[in-house]
Amino acid sequence: MLQLYFTPGPSAIYPTVNLHIKEALRKGYLSDSHRSATFKGIYKETEDNLRMLLGIPDNFSILFTSSANEIWERLVQNTVGKKSLHLVNGAFSKRFAEIAAEYGKETIIYNAEEGSVVSPDTIKADNEVELVAITHNETSTGVSQPIEDIISIRKKFPQALIAVDAVSSLPIVELPYDQIDSAYFSVQKCFGLPAGLGVWIVNDRCIKKAEELESKKIITGSYHKLLAMAKKAEDHQTIETPNVLGIYLLGKVVGDMLNKGIGQIRNETLYKAGVLYYGLQTHPLLNPFVKNEKLRSNTVCIFETNDKSIEIINFLKAKSMVIGSGYGSFKNNHIRIANFPATGKEQIEMLTDKLNDFQ
Ligand SMILES: *Cc1c(COP(=O)(O)O)cnc(C)c1O
């Protein structure tokens, strides 16, 4: 029997991907040169569709990398001379800060309490900070930083670049692109695609900063340095032979999401998150890990399990449903449920019913 995946990355594949893969093979796209008009057309379609779905303004470029991990490194190399500031609310935001430290940058770190976020009020203004790193949706703890917080941080750091990790919340979150300088995601989370592609959205301020660093003879990388990537992107090309299938599939799935309507997709996500959080409210074992409802993620729903994670995971597995275990040290006392667009309402309802059968 086919398994139903509720895992937060890699995650359930968007239902139309099967057809799009066959089409890509049938049309020979995967053997066409990445310097051909065909590839440029694929890049352009994916870019245009993403701009429309997410409302990305024209002063942002859309660049392709191998993963979000790569984007962390590229951001550090290309936008930080000396000093970056990191809001750490879980394992992913922590890793970004570590990369900056490994590059010898002075990293200012604000740590959130477990299951919460850093409050902007606690952050001290500092006009030497060049990059502020915010994780909108922490996939390891299931917290979401409210958008108002991003706007308050912008006010405190007018000179800095603000980069938002929205790996497990785009396209559900509406980001305030006029208040930030970069956002990024990888495709194996909310977009329901095979892993191996990161999408880096960067504005002209980031590009200007990379130019500034280069003019000071600071090394901004080699093969994927921002200035070279952005220049190629103007002509809908990539430096390397890219993940053509990944870029093609992303464009097609975003096209399907446009046809369905982003409003509808966002409403369904809210509805399904409600089914999970409220449907499990009276469960004798499960409790939402994030106590403050305002900070609870709608796309990665995390429950404490009274150390019964393994039993719950196996109980569901026997019913062909796969959920995520807790992240890192939470392995045995959390379960993580992805509430991404690839998963339908009925599937979330069925999962909630089965979880209620486990007592
Ligand atoms: C998964 C994830 C990443 C890393 O993505 P990769 O594609 O594995 O590099 C980064 N940030 C968040 C919030 C994530 O969920």
UniProtKB/TrEMBL annotation:
InterPro entries: Aminotrans_V_dom, PyrdxlP-dep_Trfase, PyrdxlP-dep_Trfase_major, PyrdxlP-dep_Trfase_small, SP_NH2Trfase/AEP_transaminase. Substrate binds at residue 336. One of its GO terms (biological process) is glycine biosynthetic process, by transamination of glyoxylate. The modification N6-(pyridoxal phosphate)lysine is found at residue 189. GO terms for molecular function: alanine-glyoxylate transaminase activity; L-serine-pyruvate transaminase activity. Residues 8-326 form the Aminotransferase class V domain. Keywords: Aminotransferase, Pyridoxal phosphate, Transferase. The keyword Signal does not apply. Transmembrane segments: none annotated. Its cofactor is pyridoxal 5'-phosphate. It holds the Pfam family Aminotran_5. Belongs to the class-V pyridoxal-phosphate-dependent aminotransferase family. This is Alanine--glyoxylate aminotransferase family protein. It comes from Marinigracilibium pacificum.
